[in-house]
Amino acid sequence: HHRHAARQPPADPRCVTVVHAGMDRAAGAPGRIEMRNTGAPCSLTLYRDPQSQSRYTRIWLSNQPANGEVTIDNPTVRYAPRPGFQGEDRFIIDTMPDGRLVVTVRVLGAD
Q1: Given 12, 30, 43, 60, which residue has the most CB atoms within 10 angstroms?
Q2: How many CB atoms lie within 10 A of CB 97?
Q3: Residue from 50, 59, 64 nearest 95 by CA
Q4: What tens digit of pLDDT does each residue of 29-55 get?
């Protein structure tokens, strides 16, 4: 569990992530993040099969968020909003084998 870069602050426990089934559908699956902009990222974990925790061969960002940064360390995807940002953001993750997750982020103020 200690493989990610040291400069990445730990994910904020107050962030909520929901990933719905159906990433293999053409339109992808909806994902949702709700978080406070504390400077800490929010992370979600993507498994092909949550039961066996089998991973996708590859996970990549196919659509950048406008107001934050996404870092990927399979199976973990982290989103960090830019400082001071509040509002809605969106990004798209693609996977191999074919999968797509369209993530909507709701960023609230720091407190």
Answers
A1: 43
A2: 10
A3: 59
A4: 888 889 999 988 998 888 888 788 888
